Amino acid sequence: MAASQFNSSESNTTFLDSQFRYVLFPVFYSIFFVVGFFANVYVLFILRCLREAKAMGEIRIYMTNLTVADLLFVCALPFWIDYYRRKGDWVFQDFMCQLTGSFFFINNYCTILFLAAISFNRYWAVTRPLDAASSDHRCRGFIICALIWGSTIAMAFPYMTTPGVNPDGDKTRCFEGYQNQTEYEKKKVAVMHFVIIGLFSVVFFIVVVFNFLIARALLSQNMPQSGYSSSTVKSNRTKTSTFKNPKNSRGVKRRALQMLLAVVGVFVLCFLPHHIVQGPWALAVLQIKDGWGHMDWHQDTRQALSDAHQITLVLMGFNCILDPVVYFFATRKFRRFIVEHMKRMLKGEACSHSGNTQISMDSKNQSQKIQSVQPQPNEE
């Protein structure tokens, strides 16, 4: 969470603070709590209805798990709002500090990994549309989700098992106040931060590569010709759908590129700034005196890094609101269901059987339709 720093002219027990965070965090975390809670609960409702319609397959599994991770973070926000309202004084038990800190960590890095999985799924749908349309690969989705949860919880294990609170004068800090730790403990904290930065860099590189390949595949595909030989045209119906195919293809490509921009946008806005600042900030906060990690930071530099770090933490929390936006661009079925559900809500209905049936019929006919035209990027 937010962190301590050192005053170069005072002892290493001085907690150098960023006072503006005590206004910044309560305001933004309150917004994230209200909007994020209702948005993600609504997403779970939609995904449940799509499950009943047997629609979307593998990507629905990723979206469901990502939504659960967002809700874990949202449910922990009231504790952090109270913490910052009290000027950085944790009044709850150490267990709650460990739990809410773990939720913060798990949400952010589950989000990063699930967005990477969604990028892979969309890359597969674009490059192998026939395979994507004819099978849902849910088993693969369950295995990948289990690996993501397992690896993220394992990385969060130190937060769950070590004391999270640190005394600082008349206040009790939660996951900050490390200036009172030994040099050995400080170096352990620094190593953990840089390991996390390295892992994020690898995942971010993979996401950029997948989305670059998606964009290249979409932009390099030739539009279908306006006419075909009589041997190709099996019937007037097939011919009609073939003539319409260029327009449909342009729409699919446009929506796929929107999804690409949404995923990369979440990474660049929410996660990249934090991981750029995190390394220098950690060294400035810890103020390691000798050996590895020792940096002769100027007071103004340390304060600037602290202030920047508070802002990047707010940006990281913003992902719980932006993730539903990614879902909207990720699949046509998700967008269509939202539009249909809004119409039904205006009529006083809920998750209607007719709407689910229609989506289910579309899913069953999708592979049949794609066989009758030139292979195009599959959009579930």
Describe this structure in words.
- It is a single chain.
- By secondary structure, the protein is mostly helical.
- It has a single domain, classed as Rhodopsin 7-helix transmembrane proteins (Rhopdopsin 7-helix transmembrane proteins, Up-down Bundle).
- Helix 7 (236-286) runs antiparallel to helix 8 (299-317).
- It has a two-stranded antiparallel sheet.
- Helix content is 73%, strand content 2%.
- It has eleven helices and two strands.
Q: What's the short story on this structure?
A:
Residues 39-327 form the G-protein coupled receptors family 1 profile domain. The protein contains eleven helices and two strands; from the N terminus they run αααααββαααααα.
CATH superfamily: Rhodopsin 7-helix transmembrane proteins
Order of helices and strands: HHHHHEEHHHHHH
Largest sheet: 2 strands, antiparallel
Class based on secondary structure composition and strand pairing: mainly alpha
Kindly report the CATH topology: Rhopdopsin 7-helix transmembrane proteins
Instruction: Kindly give the count of domains.
Output: 1
Lateral arrangement of strands in the main beta sheet: 1-2
What is the number of helical segments per DSSP (H or I, 4+ residues)?
Answer: 11
Which band does the percent of strand residues land in?
A: under 5%
Output mean pLDDT. Answer: 77
CATH architecture: Up-down Bundle
Q: How many beta-strand segments?
A: 2
CA radius of gyration is 25 Å
Instruction: Kindly state the percentage of residues in helix.
Output: over 70%
Tell the overall outline.
globular
Query: Which stretches are poorly predicted, pLDDT < 50 over at least 5 residues?
Result: 2-13, 223-244, 353-375
Q: Alpha-carbon distance between the termini?
A: 38 Å
CATH class membership: Mainly Alpha
